[in-house]
Design goal:
about 190 residues, single chain, mainly alpha, elongated, 5 helices, two-stranded parallel sheet
Length: about 190
């Protein structure tokens, strides 16, 4: 494709070249840290998915012989929560989340910037509130030494920590978008849009 030719779907073309950016050096460094953390969390999430699949298969095989792990349902439940919140920041960064742009597509200039800023600020505020509350929960569970009441007692702060980490990484990704909006003038929205 020649540089002068415009792609039919610029948002897809831009997505395939995320290294082409108009970010200042300091913002690119922050975004790079966020990307590394998000990808690490996504890899951990994918590993949990593989482990859950293997655990379910083990449980199926054991039930053929009238026995059980007696923990598969609990561990899979914790795993589903972990993969959901650990993969969410990566999904936001990679544009895999759906965003309804019926309003913002009709806006331009300063009005669009203000609406984008409001959306990013309100999302960030919600993530900050949730992360702060979740940190209180994790700290309380850790201090009390609370464990699950199952065959193998699991410290409850461990599964709750996955939720907290996911919220913090989502907040970091929102901060990157906010900084990009202020520094460059756009929030680099690569989400699937409706």
């Amino acid at each position: 494709m020649s540089p002068a030719a415009k792609p039919d779907l610029p948002e897809i073309e831009e997505h395939h070249h995320p290294d082409r950016t108009d970010d200042p050096v300091w913002l690119a460094a922050i975004a790079r840290v966020s990307t590394i953390l998000n990808r690490t969390a996504a890899i951990i999430s994918a590993s949990f998915l593989v482990a859950m699949t293997l655990l379910i298969l083990l449980e199926i095989c054991m039930r053929i012989f009238s026995t059980s792990t007696y923990m598969a349902d609990v561990l899979v439940g914790y795993g589903v929560a972990a993969i959901t919140f650990l993969a969410a920041p990566w999904a936001l960064e990679e544009g895999a989340m759906i965003r309804v742009t019926a309003l913002t597509d009709k806006l331009s200039g300063a009005v669009r910037w203000i609406v984008e800023a409001f959306a990013i600020a309100s999302s960030g505020g919600i993530m900050w509130f949730l992360a702060a509350r979740q940190w209180q929960t994790v700290a309380k569970l850790f201090d009390r030494g609370s464990t699950s009441e199952h065959l193998i007692p699991i410290p409850l702060w461990i599964p709750e920590s996955f939720f907290f980490v996911g919220l913090v990484l989502l907040l970091l990704q929102i901060i990157v978008r906010a900084l990009r909006l202020v520094a460059v003038g756009h929030g680099e929205e690569r989400a699937l849009t409706l």
